[in-house]
Specification:
single chain; about 250 residues; alpha/beta; TIM Barrel; eight-stranded parallel barrel; 11 helices
């Protein structure tokens, strides 16, 4: 198994959790870092990893979230950058170097950039550093059906093509909406057992943790269901219980 996969599964076993905490903090910008730190402090024992996206990274920058990065490192929590990277190679490589410099364990990228002069060297660079690439295969909002389910000229849905790319590119994981167990099962069959399956959309968007896990997901990604709960610690424990379907 690849180093990132090993770290994820070891963290999951140590904490008995398959939950990736999405620290997608909204509200006044000047309050976001403190809220994120408080939620992480209260939930860290119940989650297997942490995901940061534009909610924090855009207004605060990598320097601004350094305290979160350090906290995750000290706690042994893998840290995922959710940028859905989708640009030309030179830009992608600059993003990759910045994330690796600050200690991120993985990056979520969009397959739309392709491999050649797109993501190919990013995958190589992350693997050389012992880090992982997660490929976005299907999103969890309603509009995703307009794009990710489009049929290619051969009649294959786009998400299935992306899953095949994920396997051929040798990425570490795929991101597939938790709102369709059948789709998770399809993707799992394509990518095989060496590729982790992460399922967002649990909780606020209506996805069910138990269905996602029983359909083949390795991890569920939960944001608002925890970050906007009146008691984030209690919510994290609830999702931890719901996600205890042993996949490996």
């Amino acid at each position: 198994m690849k180093p990132f996969t090993v770290r994820m599964l070891e963290s999951a076993k140590r904490r008995e959790s398959r939950v990736v905490l999405a620290l997608d903090i909204s509200g006044p910008i000047e309050e976001r870092l403190a809220r994120a730190a408080s939620i992480l402090e209260r939930t860290r024992s119940a989650v297997a990893a942490v995901k940061l996206n534009h909610h924090l990274l855009l207004p605060l920058g990598l320097e601004g979230v350094k305290s979160i990065i350090i906290e995750c490192r000290e706690e042994g929590l893998p840290l995922i950058a959710d940028l859905k990277l989708n640009d030309i190679e030179s830009t992608n490589m600059n993003v990759a170097e910045s994330l690796l410099h600050y200690g991120f364990d993985a990056l979520i990228a969009s397959p739309l950039a392709g491999s050649e002069e797109g993501l190919g060297k990013v995958v190589q660079r992350f693997h050389a550093a012992g880090s992982g690439i997660l490929l976005l295969v299907h999103m969890s909002h309603r509009g995703a059906e307009e794009t990710y389910s489009l049929q290619t000229s051969g009649g294959e849905p786009l998400y299935r093509l992306f899953a095949r790319w994920a396997r051929s590119w040798g990425v570490d994981g795929v991101v597939v909406s938790a709102k369709s167990g059948d789709r998770i099962a399809e993707v799992r069959q394509i990518v095989g057992r060496e590729c982790l399956v992460f399922s967002p959309g649990v909780g606020a968007q209506g996805g069910m943790a138990s269905e996602a896990m029983s359909s083949g997901a390795d991890f569920i990604m939960v944001g608002r269901g925890i970050t906007e709960a009146s008691d984030p610690a209690k919510a994290a424990m609830m999702f931890r219980r719901q996600g205890r379907y042993e996949t490996r």
